[in-house]
Amino acid sequence: MAVPAHDERDFEFAKKFGLDVKWVVESKEEGHELSKEEAFTQYGVNVNSGEFNGLTTEEAKKAITAKLSEISAGGSKITYKLRDWVFSRQRYWGEPIPIYFPVDFPNDVDPTTVDPKMDGCEHTIRYDKPIPVDEADLPLKLPEMDDFSPGDDPAGCLARAKEWRYFQKDGKWYARETNTMPQWAGSCWYYFRFLDPKNDDAAFSPELDEDWMPVDLYVGGAEHAVLHLLYARFWHQVLYDLGYTKHPEPFQKLVHQGMILGSDGEKMSKSRGNVVNPDDVVDAHGADALRLYEMFMGPLEAVKPWQTSQVAGVVRFQNKLYNVVQSAVQNESDVAMDEETTKILHKTMKKVTEDIESMSFNTAISAMMVLTNHLTTLKDKVPWEAAEKLTLMVSPFAPHLGEECWNLLGHDKSLAYHPWVEYDEALCVDNTVTIGVQVNGKKRGEIEISVDADQEVAVEQAMKVQTILNQVDGKEVKKVIFVPGRILNIIVK
């Protein structure tokens, strides 16, 4: 098939050999003339196409497909693309492939009198007749080798291990496969072995499969979607079909974390010179600062550029939080929490708890920053309970800081053994709300009212604000628009 009018390579070919060129698509733009000197490769409108004239490229594709289906000459079809899985490796490390092949000798040679392990022995390995190793003979183990460098043989180093490669069975000679697996044979079902790593009788027990599988959450980069995750699912389906697991799917939920780019906004690469070594950040600011900054950069799934200068922001947060805990410890007696602090604390505990569940780590850290800033304003009146709860909340994000503060608060055991924070839902609800007040659609001030205040109360409070009163004084109120908890708009004339 050739479309010289609408394919650059076909156009060059037709032009070189003097072939006819017929245009069947022209530009949608009015007054645009087709150039006869180059192919038109954009979407446009059909011409010279019979009953399909006047249709856009998108419309023509559907109409032509429908026509082909109608006359039983074709139809639509979804084609899936799958990256080839090159499973074999010509190297030593990796699982040996449990396949062997018959060995043939010349017709005039008695197989019982020759040894293919010996140099110069003429023989042919019948790769067209693969034979699986008996299950009773598994696992097939690699031979001990002093030299497992690749060598000159493209078959790999195992081809040199002749005592292992060649063997006799029932008076016949056979040769083992010398390629190895790429270690994916193990990594594709590692989550099963994690269930039962010390089981010498089976890969994993049915009881543990029932108790723990399938995996609740898998976090991996987008590149996993066409590599490990895809093949892990293949492997899982085989194990399911064979009855080793009761679960048809391996993973219940998948989250792709976004890629962290270099400071130039490009993918980190040695050739670009924009690679950030995390060890350098740890050396300068500590592991907790690195962890906090990575989570604070933005949503987990988003692609984000690295900015080393911004690490200082989370370092300041760490220092503030530590100072807050120190203030609480230095109090001779526990300080009672006021209503404002109590509400902020419970709102933060709710926010952090929910954000961890939804993996919204950046907003959880932001909420803790707000609480820390508030506690800082209390100076030497920081309540012990607030400092303790804040320490527990920060620990999953900055475990070293969490443990240090926990110890500072007088605890002997690790906070890892302490229950997670609990919040009171009633204390997370505001009794009052601040809303903007507009006059003729323009904001003139704000008022704080009860969350269940009606329009009459809102207007009454608005009239006590001088900036609002200045705009309505001496004018007729034509209309009042009140959206509870959000806005008040007074229309005057």
Top keywords for this entry?
5-stranded antiparallel beta sheet, 493 residues, flat, 4-stranded mixed beta sheet, single chain
SSE topology:
Layout: H1 8-17, E1 25-26, E2 45-46, H2 57-70, E3 99-104, E4 124-125, E5 131-132, H3 162-165, E6 166-169, E7 172-176, H4 184-187, H5 190-195, H6 206-212, E8 218-220, H7 228-241, E9 254-256, E10 260-261, H8 278-285, H9 287-296, E11 304-305, H10 311-330, H11 339-357, H12 361-377, H13 384-394, H14 399-408, E12 432-439, E13 442-450, H15 455-462, H16 466-472, E14 477-483, E15 487-492
Parallel strand pairs: 8-9, 10-11, 12-15
Antiparallel strand pairs: 1-2, 3-4, 3-5, 3-7, 6-7, 12-13, 14-15
Characterise this structure.
The chain has 493 residues and is of the alpha+beta class. Helix content is 34%, strand content 13%. It contains 16 helices and 15 strands. The protein has helices at 8-17, 57-70, 162-165, 184-187, 190-195, 206-212, 228-241, 278-285, 287-296, 311-330, 339-357, 361-377, 384-394, 399-408, 455-462, 466-472, and strands at residues 25-26, 45-46, 99-104, 124-125, 131-132, 166-169, 172-176, 218-220, 254-256, 260-261, 304-305, 432-439, 442-450, 477-483, 487-492. Strands 3, 4, 5, 6 and 7 form a 5-stranded antiparallel sheet that branches. A hairpin with a 2-residue loop joins strand 12 (432-439) and strand 13 (442-450). Helix 8 packs across helix 9 (287-296) and helix 13 (384-394) packs antiparallel against helix 14 (399-408). It is flat.
